[in-house]
Here is the input.
Amino acid sequence: MAEIHDFQAELDTTGLYCPEPIMLMHNRVRDMQAGEVLKVVASDPATTRDVPKFCQFLGHELTHQQQVGDSYVYFIRLG
Here is the structure.
């Protein structure tokens, strides 16, 4: 599948389980600017619930979310 989303940073949390992916996302967005896009790849199904809540709580925009095989891919635009 062709990559259609521009992103400035990528975080691969494959193999990690709640709450580790969210903790790593918190750390990663600290180094980013508003408007930049973070691509997150995860294997934990709980991220389908946790990532949208993370975005809602912190004012970020979840611009795209999809499942690719056993992985979950998220694109988050920082608020």
Q: What stands out?
A: Helices lie at 20-29, 47-58.
